[in-house]
Specification:
Distance between the termini: 29 Å
Strand content: under 5%
Structural class: mainly alpha
Largest sheet: 2 strands, antiparallel
Radius of gyration: 20 Å
Number of strands: 2
């Protein structure tokens, strides 16, 4: 518990102070956001706002994790290191994208092919590593099963399909969070709630951990390192919450792709390492809806020869075009996210209660 709370507190403090420093540096160097001409006209006034704030989030999370382990003199775990590797790797891809936008003074960064290749290489490396590093009981960080609230035993994929499934999860959530980053504080608030949810999931998994043989119950969880994953989850929640101080409307800094790709990767990594991949679809339901809005918009446009299903995609821009104030869209999307998170946590706990009742 001390490790988890310390990591969360350090993540919060590190992000609040680090983001303030990042704003100063970025403003001094003139590294501002370039706004799309075809987006909502109300966004044109945001041109020049510092971007690449995701670097401050990444730095805060790494500092929080390493310092928490150093202060309490506990070693990092395979799962924690793997999750942070995915987080930093996708953040680096986002950083390259942001840097190209800034250095070339345009709203488009890496071309889609280069971005996809880099994301794919990092996802492949993570997926392969998930099946390595078994603990003393033979439990690896990732699983070759599809999982919901735990592994679904009749959905065994094997190593190759298992890797493909993990890669798909990473691509879906990293791009889902990236699409959600379009309004001041929107993606930051959404990811904060999801990371808090995963901190609770990991904490409960640790309390009912099969590796704690003296206290393990009939519905214990076969996961690799739940306590360390809880520490990373709360460090992520603390860092995004601290960043929100500066990112709330009117934003003084944007996270950029360096933040959104990294945070989306962290959500995917937590889903895989906690063996709750389908539960992540509920906890991150707002990301799913926003991604679906883009898929439906593109598909409808092609099928109808140029007609649009929404006034603008992603979904948050549709409501802006309908006349909703930006802050109204953000707060209402936060509320919907809170409902998804509450539903997901309720299902997670109810499954354990129902299972123990049935076995008892």
């Amino acid at each position: 518990m001390r490790l988890i709370l310390l990591a969360g507190a350090l993540g919060l403090i590190g992000a609040m102070l680090g983001t303030r420093l990042a704003i100063r540096v970025l403003v001094r160097r003139g590294y501002g956001q370039h706004v799309r001409d075809d987006g909502p006209q109300t966004h044109l006034k945001k041109a020049g706002t510092p971007t690449m704030g995701g670097v401050a989030i990444i730095g805060a999370v790494l500092m929080a994790y390493l310092l928490a382990h150093l202060v309490l003199w506990t070693p990092p775990t395979a799962s924690g290191v793997l999750l942070l590797g995915l987080f930093v790797g996708l953040g680096f891809v986002g950083f390259l994208d942001d840097w190209i936008k800034i250095s070339r003074a345009r709203s488009l960064g890496l071309n889609s092919r280069a971005k996809l290749i880099l994301q794919g290489l990092i996802a492949i490396g993570f997926a392969w590593a998930c099946f390595q590093f078994p603990d003393g009981r033979g439990i690896s960080p990732g699983s070759q099963y599809v999982s919901f609230l735990r592994d679904i035993q009749w959905l065994h994929l094997g190593p190759w399909l298992g890797m493909a499934w993990i890669i798909f999860i990473i691509a879906a959530f990293s791009n889902g969070v990236n699409l959600s980053d379009g309004l001041d504080g929107l993606a930051t608030g959404l990811t904060t709630m999801v990371f808090v949810a995963y901190a609770l999931v990991n904490f409960w998994q640790h309390s009912q951990w099969c590796s704690r043989l003296s206290t393990a119950g009939p519905m214990c969880y076969e996961v690799r390192d739940p306590n360390d994953l809880a520490a990373v989850s709360l460090a992520l929640a603390g860092a995004t919450f601290g960043f929100l101080w500066w990112n709330a409307s009117p934003a003084k800094i944007f996270m950029g792709d360096s933040g959104s790709l990294a945070l989306g990767g962290a959500v995917a990594g937590l889903a895989v390492l906690t063996r709750t991949e389908l539960l992540a679809v509920i906890l991150g339901g707002m990301f799913v809806l926003i991604t679906l809005s883009v898929v439906l918009q593109v598909g409808y446009f092609k099928l109808t020869g140029g007609k649009r299903l929404f006034k603008m995609a992603p979904l948050h821009h549709h409501f802006e075009m309908k006349g909703w104030a930006e802050q109204t869209v953000v707060v209402r999307f936060w509320i919907i996210c809170g409902i998804f998170v509450a539903a997901g946590l309720g299902l997670f706990y109810a499954e354990w209660v129902a299972g123990t009742d049935l076995i008892g």
